[in-house]
Design brief:
The structure is a homodimer. Chain A contains 15 helices and 16 strands. The first copy, chain A, has 2 domains: 266 residues, Zn peptidases (Aminopeptidase, 3-Layer(aba) Sandwich); 156 residues, Glucose Oxidase, domain 1 (3-Layer(bba) Sandwich), CATH 3.50.30. In chain A, helix 2 runs antiparallel to helix 15, helix 3 packs antiparallel against helix 10 and helix 10 crosses helix 15. The first copy, chain A, has an 8-stranded mixed β-sheet, with helices on both faces. By secondary structure, the first copy, chain A, is of the alpha/beta class. The N terminus of chain A is likely disordered. In chain A, 37% of the residues lie in helices and 24% in strands. Chain A is elongated and about 75 Å long. The two termini of chain A are 44 Å apart. At the A-B interface, helix 2 and helix 15 of A face helix 2 and helix 15 of B.
Chain lengths: 463, 463
């Protein structure tokens, strides 16, 4: 290289450098992150593991044998990865059995009889044989229910029919607005003397699939049987009722709650090289509704959490803090796994510093979220350029039902989260449609890489 | 309202107003756009029409009876909408018949014989009975092929095996890098005396589905039979070849090109209230590969284009310029529909001012694109706040194979485009997996609403 050329080279280089922010983590971190994404996008390991989980342990609601199989499967997956440690954390969970396939039909003198797709709500009591038949009172809000005289409700079936709002751009908002019908509708109807409860499924689409999910009875209220019917069936029931107030609804469920039974959280970790007692938790919930494969809710989140560890291993990232993947048991029912994990961490004097939960489906990631104070958020925002190539925004948010209980013992814990695209989620959430074939490998892996990246940066630089 | 309060109210209002850009189109346009999205998100009309198109006219490659059925179906859909005009534009298209189901197998003395999933490339010649068998030369680049002595190629089958790069974040880039194998691989192999050609399918995934697509022979080169095999089969063939150079590949195809046959572009329009002879074209291509339902490629783009008109109608938007939805025939083979549309527009002295093509799948829209000069792009950027609520970026780009020919006659035409998420596209592109059930209604409708919004703003304010 001639002198003049060298001079010009240095001048140009200095000029270019002047455009790079002073505290930029380029290029070392950018390279590591690129490698994380490359490995994620070219690997089929997580995807094949999710397939196995979905297809061999479908219906793994807590207390069921399928849940025990899922525990063993994910334990074996993590053992096969030669992590620093893999163990089971015992937790007692509730049990419940759906019983025989539900039967539901609308019986109208004017329109005839039609069978409708239905499923019992989770932890609902059954009607038993020979089922339950009554006239129907339709309401679209709690106010509407409460405004009615008791005489109009007593001995009837209350039909909650507030649709999930399709015009919300974020479908979680629609779910949040409507899910009260499922969680507290039966209890509220029971208070007014209703003998049964029919819920419009929590689906964003008008289709034929009933969606289950937990309902909460209240101690002081006699529980009443409760089912969800498909949104299309809800539309039919509503339109028939508009003309034939005297129609009857019949349903038969044989579901039954059982005693508490032993189960486990499944945990694997990469031990921290500098502060092994400071723990970054990344997890999803292993249980899934008994009618579903639980691919997006939340087998995918579990497998992504394991994948974070594999992406660290494969790229030779030895974390300074311990990074722990947790498959929480029983998110869907009573969040016992999350509670057990938090209280045991506290009892063992672990230092839980951060927790990332993936439980919004494994679609294309739009954002990674952090809940921090102003100073933390400011530092966090400086990482945005590292996520820009992957079209992932850094926003505030994070936490979740399983990592939430940690806050009680670790008020300063940093909650993180992943926010995927959500247009497709609520047509399969808690329904038979939540199957492996609805998962795109690249989308799931982009999410896992985003999670690994956030944890890598937090582990290295803190917040 | 007390005086003091009124004063404070005005002060606060003025303060707030000072943050609104001087030339903001808020709030009237924002309300219209919100209504466009609301209507899109709550309607099932386009979705049901796409289902009908996919399920009753699957395999509608140009020249086939299914294509004629698709012409009639979309014509009827637009007639049912009471547009200002609906008509068919005749165009002569090529015809080709795949013939009997393809047979392909690897025959190795060392590993045995295995049948592999395959399909003939579009417009390839067939092997005829009894098929073709030869030793295999694997190459991963054109350079590699050309560097080989003719003696190594002559009488052999050339196997093009350059994978679509999974680490690209945009999968269209990967397609662009690899698709030469399909389009010109057989011609290049033929030049060197190969007797057949096997192509690794243009799939971003390692799976069992062969992907078809057009291949272009060259006039001076004797055409040779050519098939695509699944990516998984390509991996097997490659790994066997590494050990057994003498293995044979056998395939049998009976495909046959036919004469040109008459077909149509299907066109419907809303006439402009002020400048009816100035036309904004929005379209997709109606033809789809013969092995696919063509849901994402490009039935969805056609139906979105019709939906733009419906969203205008439903929201009482009377465009100043004519807005025309065009279902182009024959994008996949020779783009005859696009050429016919452009030359006829010119012959009729229409003034084509803008054209938006949707042909990248109907996934969640990420961006709307425009190709304009600096001044146009500057004005366009001022519309970004109107798209922000829908998480749609305004970027440069647009155009496409069908609207492209307009440029020849209208050098100043403004090309627009829609850029959806693309992680899922290339596992179904040109394959049997491109089915209606892979389309999410909300995602498709968000795209249609984004298209309608861009056209609405352009029609109202120009660029």
């Amino acid at each position: 290289m001639k002198k003049m050329n060298l001079f010009r080279f240095v001048a140009v280089a200095m000029c270019l450098l002047s455009f790079i922010p002073a505290r930029s983590q380029q290029p070392e971190e950018a390279t590591v992150i690129r490698n994380i994404f490359n490995e994620a996008l070219t690997s089929y390991e997580a995807y094949h593991n999710l397939e196995k989980l979905c297809k061999t342990t479908a219906g793994r609601i807590c207390g069921r044998p399928e849940a025990a199989e899922a525990v063993e499967l994910t334990r074996q997956i993590m053992i096969g990865m030669h992590l620093d440690s893999v163990w089971l954390q015992p937790v007692m969970v509730k049990s419940w059995d759906r019983g025989e396939k539900e039967i539901a039909r609308i019986v109208s003198g004017k329109f005839g009889t039609v069978a409708v797709p239905s499923c019992a709500l989770g932890w609902a009591i059954g009607t038993g044989d020979p089922g339950l038949s009554a006239r129907v009172v339709e309401v679209k809000s709690l106010q509407e229910l409460k405004a009615k005289p008791r005489s109009e409700i007593e001995g009837r079936i209350v039909f909650f029919n507030q649709p999930m709002k399709q015009t919300n751009l974020g479908t979680f908002t629609s779910y949040g607005e409507a899910v009260w019908q499922r969680t507290s509708g039966p209890a509220e109807a029971g208070k007014l003397g209703a003998i049964g409860c029919v819920i419009r499924s929590m689906s964003i689409e008008i289709d034929d699939f009933p969606h289950t999910g937990i309902t909460h009875y209240e101690d002081a209220v006699k529980p009443i049987p409760a089912i969800a019917i498909s949104t299309k069936a809800a539309e039919i029931l509503s339109s028939w009722l508009a003309v034939d107030k005297d129609l009857n609804f019949y349903f038969r469920t044989t579901c039954l709650a059982g005693p508490d039974v032993p189960s486990f959280n499944v945990i694997g970790e990469l031990r921290g090289s500098e502060s092994p007692n400071e723990i970054i938790t990344v997890g999803g919930h292993l249980d899934a509704w008994d009618i579903a494969q639980g691919a997006h809710d939340d087998g995918g989140g579990c497998i992504q959490s394991i994948e974070v560890l594999r992406l660290f291993q494969k790229n030779g990232i030895r974390p300074k803090h311990t990074v722990r993947a947790v498959m929480f048991m029983d998110e869907e029912v009573a969040q016992r796994g999350g509670q057990q994990y938090a209280s045991e961490a506290s009892a063992k004097k672990e230092k839980q510093i951060a927790a990332l939960e993936s439980d919004r489906g494994v679609f294309q990631p739009k954002a990674m979220a952090v809940t921090g104070n102003a100073e933390q958020m400011k530092k966090y925002a400086t990482w945005q350029p590292l996520f820009d190539p992957y079209d992932i925004k850094l926003i505030s948010g994070g936490g979740g039902a399983d990592v939430g209980p940690l806050k009680k013992f670790y008020p300063d814990i940093l909650f993180m989260g992943i926010i995927p695209e959500d247009q497709r989620y609520f047509k399969l959430h808690h329904a038979t449609t939540d199957t492996f074939d609805q998962v795109d490998r690249r989308e799931m892996q982009m999410g896992a890489a985003g999670m690994a990246t956030l944890i890598y940066l937090y582990d290295k630089f803190g917040l």
